[in-house]
Please model this.
Amino acid sequence: MKLDYGTLISISPLELKNGLGIRSPLLREIEALSFPVYQSFLGVLLLDIESYYSGMDKNGLDYFANYSHQEKQAICQIREEYNHLTLEEKEGILPIDIFSYDTKLLNSVTEALSFFLDCRLSYSHEHKGFIAIDGKRADCQVPREIYSLITELILQRNGIFPSKTAIEKPKFKSELAKKLYYRAKEAEQKREKSRDNSASMDLPNILSAVAARHPSLNMLNIWDITVYQLYDQFKRLQNNTLYDIQSMSVAAWGDSKNNFDPSQWYKNLNTEN
Model:
């Protein structure tokens, strides 16, 4: 489900039918939380089963440093059971089905959802989902069936658009076709994870860059815009800089090949997500 541009740049929460309100936090809220904690919240919501187990392997025994022997056994047993599933059976397993057995990770997911939904949540094994615990919003619930949708919408409102989207499961004419499909899918996921995340794209650096170059936003008032609005203005500044360079070139040397687009400055950049 892709959100429209108006919803993405809005300061108001995205109200869903079940009572949830997904917000794009203000920069001052992120600063109060701290940028590293905010990034960690996005990290756990981006986590899928494969990257979860990959990270576990990368950390080795250190991953279980703060777990009891019983908790470690439970996590390892669930992993063993998951590994013995067929590719088709794994399609029916949701990330939260696996994460719910990892207390430390589950607490991080709960904190992240509580922040972005502005509702104190707790995971209930009985209800197989997250439920409100503050008594103010009994309708604030995230059952397992909509967990992936909720995380996807939260990420979009924070300027993150994972390339892996939910599509209708294809029908295979042979086992070979099925194997080739999942092999290609796995390769695509590996390419996505290997993309370089430059320090220049860190949120504090983008915030500082926009405040230094924007005609009206500065270090005093920039904290009152949402994080998505910040990314939007960052892209606009990039686009307008390119437009200014091209327009000056045309003014000086002409445009014999008719390559200059005078409407470039108001191009809908949201279509690129």
